[in-house]
Structure formats: C-alpha cells, structure tokens
Design a protein that fits this description.
about 290 residues, mainly alpha, ABC transporter involved in vitamin B12 uptake, BtuC, 12 helices, globular
Amino acid sequence: MDFFLAATLSGILVGGLYALVALGFVLIFKATGVLNFAQGELVMLGGYIAWSLLVLAALPLWLGLLLTLVAGGILGLLVNRFFIRPLIAQPVMSTIMMTIAVSAVLTGITVLIWGSAFRSLPKFLPMGSIHLGEITLSQGHATEFVVALVAVGILSLFFYRTRRGLMMRSTAENDFISLSLGINVKGVIAMAWAISAGLSAIGGIALGSISGVSLYLSTMGLMVLPVVILGGLDSIAGAVVAGLLMGVLQNLASLYLDPLVGGGMGEVFPFIVMTIVLIIRPTGLFGSRRIERV
C-alpha cells in the first residue's frame, strides 16, 4: 500500500507539470483550431534561454527567470507572426504541417546556437525529500507542482475574469462573429501564442533545474500529447485534470506493469490511454462536442 500511495502522490506532483505544458496546447487550439506540434521545442528553448541568462550572463535568479518568460513570450509572437499568420484562412492541415516544420526549425536553431551538449542549470529548486510517514517524495517535484498550480490559477483568472480573456474565449468559439464584434482576432491569436510559449518556458525552467537542459526536453511535447487528448483539446479544466491523472497512471504502470514486461511501460502507457480515448471518446473527458447539420 505504501508503494501505491507513493506512486500516486509522486504522479500527482509530476502531473502538475504535464498540466502546465498541456495548457499551452489547449490555448493555441482554442484560438486557432490547430494542434501545435512545436510545443516541445518551445519547452526546450525555455530551458536553453534560462541557462544562457543564469549561467553565461550570470544574472540574478529572479531577473534571469523573468527575462526567460519574456523571451518565451516574444518567441511565441515571432512564430505566430512569421509562420502561422500567413496561413490564416488556409486549410487547417497546412497550419498543422507548418507547426511540424517550425519544430524542426527551432531544433536546428538550438543546435546552431547552443550545440547538443548537456547543460546544467543552477539548482535553485530544493533537492531534498519530503517524508510523509513511510512515503518519500521529491521536494523538487513538489515545488514544480506548486509553481504549476500558481500558473494555472493565474491563467484561469485571466481567461475567465478579464476582458482580454473574454476576447480569447469569443475568438475560440467563433472567429467570424468575433470579427463582426470588433475583436482583433489576429491580436488574440498572437496573444495565445505568447502565453503558450511563456507556459512552455516555465516548463523548460522547471525540468531543466532538476534534470538539466538538453535537446531531450523537446520530447515533453510528445509526452504531453496524450494528456491533451485525454482532457479534451479545448478544455482548460480538462488539461489540468488529465495532467494529474496521467501522471498517476504513468507511475502506476511503471510500478505494476514494468516487472511483467521487462520495463518501459511508464513511457508507453500514456499513448495506450490516448489510443483508447480516441476510439471510445474522441472529444476527451471535457472536450466540447459539436454537432454539424448538413
């Protein structure tokens, strides 16, 4: 029972970070109807930018982290302006393919600037352990979880309690009606990309502070994709719930299924869940169901 509780609690802590990155997917999908396959590369670049500011430039921690968030937002704006905006009114598949191309471009830029060597961020997150009876949890993962919850809370307040958040919701529902109401749809889409890239930068900082910065961080986008599908592509609440749930399922699969198959189930199980969800409930747990009459 202690192993089960430890795996569950640890999965919840890791799931908070999954939820944070998944929100970046959801924001862009709500604003544009496009699944951004470059999300993982934005996480990776957040880690490398943080390393450059904190290690190479030796900036104070608070300033380096703040500038990393700003740089992430600017990067999102640039990607939208030069790669996504020219494809407005084009078939959705064209934009999706463009995000795949953007992921390759960002990886190439990263290799050109920083190379492919492993980099270490300053260990500013607590690296000790939390003891709950017989259960031991990582302080670093607990801190990541708190940061993710704070970011999710701020984003939820922005999305549901501010005028710009209302504009984003309106654009997500129907961009043509939003245009007729005088909403700057292009500006809303740019804002969604900036916020999404900023969330990815937070993910890159959190991951990099514990496991280091490398090209491997880009795989976070692929790992979070099952979370987005499970929660529903257009649901903020779904991204949070599915992130926590997927973190738990991944840990339990590693605990109970790895001994049966020789290992690796923790990495594979989220995609098994994604496949089942796509077959049984393609809209996910909280995704909107749309009925079109033809």
